[in-house]
UniProtKB/TrEMBL annotation:
PHB de-polymerase C-terminal domain span: 230-428
Name used for this protein in its record: Polyhydroxyalkanoate depolymerase
Domain of life: Bacteria
InterPro entries associated with the record: AB_hydrolase_fold, PHA/PHB_synthase, PHB_depo_C, PHB_depoly_PhaZ
Length: 432
């Protein structure tokens, strides 16, 4: 598994994108632009160009005031402030089942340079397999902790635990969107698609529907159920602010001012990444009230509730702000395929020389879920799968829009626990 994944190439990034990335890498390594992700570049180009980059970023005025040594200092300050939260953790030692605290076992099922497949189970396991595909969009997989905890009541939960790109050696090669699709397809095959329910969140909906489609187009059995939640499958519908940025930011500006090379003290030294340092302000601007509410709740300490509840609030903030560096080729693929050329809904996306054809599904049960108040993924973008999967009988297809639910409420917090998961659980456990 690991060897096969390591040998994958970036199949989706056009040559002119790769040339820009390689050009930036050469400049950074040769010293004309010092390493970027963790010290960023001290020669950011002209102030006019830097201001242009800032104009496209949600944190505009902050970026326009930062350059050179100031920028590097701001990054280090950010990193130090994150250390107070400690290393991200799932905090899933036990779950409450039938009024009792039952131990949770976490094991590594498969490990590749860019992702680990983790299995969470209680007792001897349930026998039911559910693959929870966490988004590769900056957050670490711990952001879906609430979803794992809830789903453990009925199934063994397999989670895609993405690796911070700064810790992936350059020798592991590129990791584009096509590589992600092929990796998820490998994981699904490993878990036996015919016994598997797949739940994909946010960005993960795109490679997941592609992986499931590839299985359906070949000789492998189809997955039993596919749940797509809050993902931009057709970003043309009701575009959001973040979607507009991904669609319109000039690529040379993005590469010059929003990417950098991992410095020598990390395993991924020299890899060009979109750093977590820049991702958090962008995401926070999408839902600023959410981060404020989480931090305020954590600052209250043990009150209200128990010490354990306070620890969970603290862990929620830690998981939200613990952003990963992302491979730049993956970000470029996402910008191009999802937000600019809309290859999936247009039927023009090829992975591994094979068309991505959701209409090939015949037996998979399909559920699409959107949040009414989602400001990150626009209305209708996820439900678009209902049209894309036109080969499915309508009795197999369900779509739900959750009232009063924002993007993160689709997989965490009180809305998830009180409204989203009860609906999801009922649907997953219903007979086909």
């Amino acid at each position: 598994m690991s060897g096969a994944t390591t040998s994958m190439r970036c199949l989706e990034t056009p040559r002119h994108f790769r040339v820009m990335v390689d050009g930036i890498r050469h400049k950074q390594i040769s010293g004309r632009i010092p390493s970027g992700s963790h010290s960023m570049n001290s020669s950011m180009g002209s102030l006019d160009n830097f201001s242009a980059a800032a104009a496209w970023a949600p944190m505009g005025s902050f970026l326009s005031a930062m350059c050179g040594a100031q920028f590097a200092y701001a990054y280090e300050l950010f990193q130090r402030s994150m250390r107070q939260f400690g290393p991200p953790s799932y905090h899933l030692d036990t779950v409450c089942q039938d009024g009792k605290h039952v131990p949770v076992t976490m094991t590594v099922v498969a490990e590749t340079p860019f992702c680990r497949l983790l299995r969470f189970s209680v007792g001897d396991g349930h026998g039911v397999r559910r693959m929870l595909c966490a988004p590769l969009a900056g957050h670490r997989a711990v952001v879906v902790r609430d979803a794992i905890e809830s789903m453990l009541l009925d199934a063994d939960v397999y989670v895609t635990d993405w690796i911070d790109a700064r810790d992936v050696p350059r020798e592991a090669g590129h990791f584009g969107l096509a590589d992600c699709v092929l990796l998820l397809e490998q994981f699904m095959t490993l878990l036996d698609p015919a016994r598997l329910d797949v739940v994909a969140i946010c960005q993960a909906t795109i490679p997941c529907i592609a992986a499931v489609s590839r299985l359906a187009s070949g000789d492998a059995p189809e997955v039993r159920a596919l749940v797509l939640m809050g993902g931009p499958l057709d970003a043309r519908l009701h575009p959001t602010r973040l979607g507009d940025i991904a669609a319109m930011m000039p690529l040379p500006v993005f590469l010059a001012h929003c990417t950098g090379a991992v410095p020598h003290e990390y395993r991924g030294a020299g890899r060009i990444v979109y750093p977590g340092f820049l991702q958090l302000p962008t995401l926070a601007c999408g839902q600023p009230e959410r981060l404020s509410a989480m931090v305020f709740a954590a600052l209250q300490g043990p009150w209200p509730g128990s010490r354990a509840q306070a620890d969970l609030r603290h862990a929620a903030v830690a998981g939200y702000v613990a952003m990963m560096d992302m491979p730049v080729e993956f970000v470029l693929d996402t910008m191009r395929i999802v937000f600019r050329e809309h290859l999936l809904p247009r039927g023009s996306w090829y992975v591994g020389g094979m068309p991505v054809d959701p209409a090939a599904m015949r037996t998979t049960r399909l559920l699409t879920v959107e949040g009414q108040l989602d400001t990150i993924t626009g209305a209708g973008q996820t439900h678009a799968a209902q049209t894309l999967c036109r080969g499915l009988e309508r009795r197999l297809c369900t779509q739900v829009t959750v009232p009063g639910c924002d993007h993160y409420g689709l997989f965490s917090g009180p809305v998830w626990r009180s409204r989203v998961y009860p609906m999801l659980r009922s649907w997953l456990n219903a007979p086909a």
